## 1
Amino acid sequence: MKHMFDEGLERREANHVSLTPVDFVARAAEVYGDRLAIVYGDVRRTWQETYERVKRLASAIERAGVTRGETVAVLLPNIPEMVEAHYGVPMSGAVLNTLNSRLDTSSMLFMLRHGEAKALIVDSEFGDLAHRASLELPELKIISVSDVAQAEVHRFPGAIDYEAFLASGDPQFAWTTPPDEWDAIALNYTSGTTGDPKGVVYHHRGAYLNAVSNILEWDMPKHAVYLWTLPMFHCNGWCFPWTVAARAGVNVCLRKFDAKTVYDLIREEGVTHYCGAPIVQSALANAPAEWREGIAHRVSTMVAGAAPSPTVIARMKEIGFDLTHVYGLTEVYGPASVCARQDRWDALSDDERARLNARQGVRYHLQRAVSVLNPATLETVANDGESLGEIMFRGNICMKGYLKNERATAEAFRGGWFHTGDLGVITPDGYIRIKDRSKDIIISGGENISSIEIEDTLYRHPAVEVAAVVAMPDEKWGEVPCAFVQLKEGAHVDAEELITHCRLFLASFKLPKAIRFGKLPTTSTGKIQKFELRAMVGSDRAIDLPGNG
């Protein structure tokens, strides 16, 4: 029923425009056009120069025949072209698909096919993949980026060098906001809970709101200097390519993580912010003290991927880095909850404060809700720090759904919540803490690894009768895959042979780091009791939620 606040007060072109983070680069150029936007070796570009380049990119994509709603994939390290792609691709109306450069070729080819990519912007380092893609997907437009090596465009029919591609575009390209902020802006593939990658689709509204939330959670100041230690292929760099532009900050690009290089850049470029998985934080925290010499300013850092150890948190504080712990998944644009610190924690001991900071926390500013619910009844668990349930999100910072997978989308959003598959508790002060990761996913160095994918690979070996993979604690990576294998009667094979077999099908970071042989524990119905296997390797995830698997 209409009331007086509706009559004659409908949405109009003058008072309602679709939200899109693409507009952040336009504002940065309009207001702070002469300020530095990109730093990468000898490259120094202002926001005005960057804006002109992304408009050229958008124009060139359109002229290449890519239409609104079609996919442009990119396979790039954290170099300036990767920042540009986060604006130029959606500015053209296309959907950005950032590929994980650590994956094996077969996985990336699956993603290119499944996402129906029309073009691939690829760094010359990955020329072999580009060549394979050009053979198997002859309609795919290859745009080759020359960085550490010259682009070999002659290897790919119809390929073009990135700079030549930009030169073909219009620096005055008249881009427009999307017709609907619900339109897709990005496609990100995640291991999910099965071996087949799922295509997570982001909308413009969610990317905009998460980019702004990043600013609010960090109190990120104008002109912050952000170092790209976090891969931009991962959840679009937690939406920080858009966040940095919203603050008219500086993108300090980093092709490959190296602790000494990071400290050198922090010192030389005045880096104020960076993000990273626990393994990155640990490498920096434990680096030689002399690498930090000359760094006197405050550095803010975000950590996610797995709960950082209290030891690492305390160590970061000791070296003068201000660490914020966030939590999320690909399906919620990266981080969507934060361990918001309280002033009263300052009076606590370092150990107690670090323990509190290791929790997954509370909802992001612009996320509607995060809670722990009973997965069967969808009732909130008691905030006693003991009652176990599933962590769930609700709000604008949730994906549109899984591409071409209505069933998985409906299940993920069952009951009006996004189901993370992660098990946790609510503490008496209202903070969420993970007690157990979903049983099929291993988080190693911030990367999701599907245990089912590894199991399927092990089953391909003729000697394997039963296989199960669980997370094993690891000092460097947080956790790594450990395989339990039951061989067929009369079969003989050692761990080295099985790992060599796995290497044929899996990326190196997915390989089992240990293999144990013997009869696997099962229920009376033959189901493998993975919680017992977790206990055997000393995992703190040796919990099995009744009815959840």
## 2
Amino acid sequence: MVDINRPWVVDTPELSGRFPIYTRGNTGEVAGRVSTPLSWSSIGGWPAEIQWRKALVEFGAFDEDEFRPDEMDITALIHGYIYMNLSIARVFGVRMPGASAELMDRAYLGESAGVKPYVAEPGDDAPQYTERIMATVQRVLGARSRPDLEEDARRAAELRAARPDFAAMSDRELLAHHHKIMTGHYGGVLRKHLLMVYESTLVTGMLQEVIAELSDPTLEVRLMGGWGGVASAAPTIGLWRLSRTVRGSGTLTAEFEAGDMAGLDGRLRALSDPDARAFVADFDAFLFEYGSRSTDEWEALPATWETHPHIALGLVDRMRLQSDERSPESLAPRVREEREELTRRLRERLADRPELLGKLDTALQAMAVWMPARELSKTTTIRVLQEARLPFRELGRRHVERGLLESIDDIGLLDIDELGTLIDDPEAVLPLIPERKKWKAELEALEPPFVVDGAVPPVTQWAKRSAPAASPGRSGDVLTGLGACPGAATGRARVIHDPADAIGLEPGEILVAPVTDPGWTPLFASALGVVVNVGSPLSHAAIVSRELGIPAVLAVEQATKRIADGTLITVDGTAGTVTIH
């Protein structure tokens, strides 16, 4: 019997007293499961906290000494689940000219209730930060390009090209390679990405300020898409092109239609057919470029497309069923053209309001820079991270081969220090793994509280994930969420909980998914529309759906439970609604 009442192996020992409110808002989008000891100790705990603090200080909103020197403040791990500090976000909003604590609540919590209103604490409203923040504002709004990000991307590509032969390295050399990447490459790109998360909110904040004057809430989603050059949309286009190769080849089509995605990669590589050889060459080039993408992107041992190619081939399989006119490259211009026409009309409307017109032009000019930049930054960060975590997978493979572990993933149940012990004295740490595996499974059967205010509710009081959802939707019901990409689509709902299990998604259907990780977004191209449980205007799913021109509504609470599989629904990405027929 596992005692799950105690803190998880790498839980945060003590939550902040100065900043006591934490939320799963935002983190629930990209970290839905319990964080493994290896992930938190090597990637997500102190390694991320250090860079996050630097980003906030560089932005100008905090000083380093406002945070505890020996405890994490910005994020916390509570019974294995990652939480963001809402109190710090509120102070950020108070110090940011034109923002507020309430605005940050809406960004992190959406329409969710259950958190007490903001109450000012001494030091929250600190005028000395205004000058620093305004310098950042001027820098962000004045930027016309981000060549530094292109340089970071180039270096990440070089790092991938120079990957050593892990199979030829000793166990200790593998661990040393991980540390080399984390200390020499990863920290800098992560800090820049975290800083960009805050900087991009300045751009959307200015746009929202203009929209508030125009009394049309649909303007935001209609003005935010179609900028082109978004790095996170590129994998979908690459997969689509692979799907066209399959669609045009009888040999490849037969292999895909045979099913067994897990064995498809091996079957294709065994064929001497020219079509198969050409496809494998193109697929290998795709994996070289985009193989780091996955769901659970911040984990130490995620199922990436590179390590689990059957997932990427499954995405190709769904895309091959689509007709050529569903090409992402042909759908995307619709969003751009609609935005450009809307912008033209707004400029005419504001011709006699030069101040507001100037703000609109400034916001849109900044949007053209920062939307692609933000996604390029994230793509680069994950590509570098892949080079740091692949040594873990090789270590796991070896210990499975030696008969010490049941699966490669078991190595994630040890923290980074215990991993070193595993190399030198396996018997000292191997007994820890079976209990932790059961412990993790029991925690993942629970729904963590959305907000924690000071005291953590006993884990025995947490709801079961299998508990009944809110009342299922009935014909005529309209579910509300956040419009992510303008446009409307009507089709049968296909509820999918894992992109690896998307074999049932058929042309003309609406994808209903739980989260917004990059591992999901290529499925968007196989769907007529998209509905997601969580999300925000700057979430990965929102940005990619706009670039692909797929009508999407995010932050539809418990959509995967409220919308029954096969239900006829209409997705209105402009209004942010889902109508059940």
## 3
Amino acid sequence: MEKLPKRPANYVPLSPVGFLPRAAAVYGDRTSVVYGRLRFTWSHTYERCRRLAAALLSLGVRKNDVVSVLAPNVPAMYEMHFAVPMAAAVLNTVNTRLDAKAVAAILRHSQAKVLFVDNDYVSLANDALQVVADAGARVPLVAVIVDIDRPTGVRLGVGELEYEALVSGGDPASELPSLADEWDAVTLNYTSGTTSAPKGVVYSHRGAYLNTTSQLLSWGVGTEPVYLWTLPMFHCNGWTLIWGMAARGGVNVCIRENRAADVYRAISDHGVTHMCCAPVVLNILLDGIGEARRLAAPVHVLTGGAPPTATLLDRVERVGFKVTHSYGLTEATGPALACEWRHEWDLLPLLERSRLKARQGVSVLSLADANVVDDNTMASVPRDGKSVGEIALRGSSIMKGYLDNPEANDKAFKGGWFMTGDVGVVHPDGYIEVKDRSKDVIISGGENICSKEVEEVLLQHQAVADAAVVAMPHPHWGETPCAFLVASKKAAEVCEDEVIAFCREHMARFMAPRKVVVVDALPRNALGKVDKVKLRDAVRSLVLPTATSRL
């Protein structure tokens, strides 16, 4: 067959940004964003994004420049997911729960050129910028206040602009850069939340596009959904559903915090049909059940970060939430496995249905394959639900790689697979179930906490000679860190409250242990490594404080 060349008519680089002009053309008069009394249509959103992209170019932003944002789920955060790549730049959404040192590490590593800051996070941004300056690194050239409904009373320590003024000053008719290569970077997301070297995960336009369409198909999202933003947009770009709502002409209902009253009010006022969240948010909604009647219509919930328990699934589904469980990680552009439901399972008893629903499931459509392998031989483990191996993924929605971290890239990509570091089994029906985390990651309220990094902070305390951290079950957050400590010879005693307070001063507060146990020695195996299996067994007999706040 003769060679047929690519032509402008039959080859256009894939990009999720392309969903926005289509939304403006097809759904132009429909509501795009709701935030309190504020309403935009898709035509408005498209124009505002073009204006913002033009304004960024006027500030000197160029291809592959990083634009960082520190903000909750507000319209500006939504708009930047389109406007920044429209300017050929790369969007970096920063976890608002981090401390100043962690934010500073991200700004330094990404070499962000512009920083957008919500009014509520100006103090955090100022502290982070000071850390960057003290380290002798270049701070972002421009800082922009992004909260669009309240004037700021605090100024940042660098050149400041106001978001709405920036948007209004941009020319929507300006010529914007065209995307030539779908492998170009679209966003940069960080996995690390501590003062250690962060790992920046780079997404391609192609990968984000494919993951977006995959999510819509896997979750069965039709046209005109009403989506409530209970998932932070900084988490894997809202699991790519930021772009997905434009693809479906949906309504984005934005709320700043996941208070039960606000969530139930939004569901009632706007007819919410879909939302995503970690299981901890479902617990928040159940705790506030007195504020809600049974939902007038079902709300479809995609949950991940930790397996929902059978009891939790039963309770939330009685309220009217229809839960789908997924598994993913930042490096996979969000969800990589989904527990696709089979109609015959509806006939099973509740506990059996919940057990099946709590499994991580099968690969999403953007992946070529998902497997569980022996990490020595790379051979697939038997599909018996018992043989364990490492979960490996392969497909176009996997990250481009870690920014400026060749050692981590060499470790993550092996034999044509991306190695997740998570241990699992494959059941006879092909559904994967996570059994353990080889990286010892603790997932608390949907946030990943690396136990090793918490241990490093603990060892900085003068009264601590040795430390090990494992996950402890928590009725509200799913998991929380529990620290086992050996006192130094110089210390008369180790005070639990003092150690916890020390941790909260030196890391993001949600990462600090909620329980500290002093032991004579840490259990170790024949290789001299800490035996965390024994520590996890010991955790089962411990009792947590009754308060649920991590602050």
